[in-house]
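Suppose you are handed a protein chain with no further information: no name, no annotation, nothing but its sequence. What can you learn? This example shows the usual starting point.
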Amino acid sequence: MFRAILNLFQKWQLADEEAATLLDMPLRTYRRWKSGTQGRLSRDGKARLSNLIGIHKALRLIFTDAQRGYDWVKTPNAAFQSQSALTVMLGGELTDLMRVRRYLDAERGAW
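A reasonable first move is to predict its three-dimensional structure. Written in structure tokens, the prediction is:
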């Protein structure tokens, strides 16, 4: 699952610092994991990965063009007081990721 997240972060064009914040891990640890030296994930870490994958899945279902979904993450959104979803998620809390995921799940369910 971690490899899928690394690929997603690349598509979202995230800096290592942003990726480490989303995963709530020290930058040095993230870079070590990114290079292939992985350790154990906490329950919080697993929940973060799950929410990030859920966000990606929802975006793929909402947007037929994958690039639009990748771009959406950095686009200001009225639902987040004109902030981007990435800005919300970079709040660093698991609940920030959950907020974006719930929004997307609600949007997807409205179809």
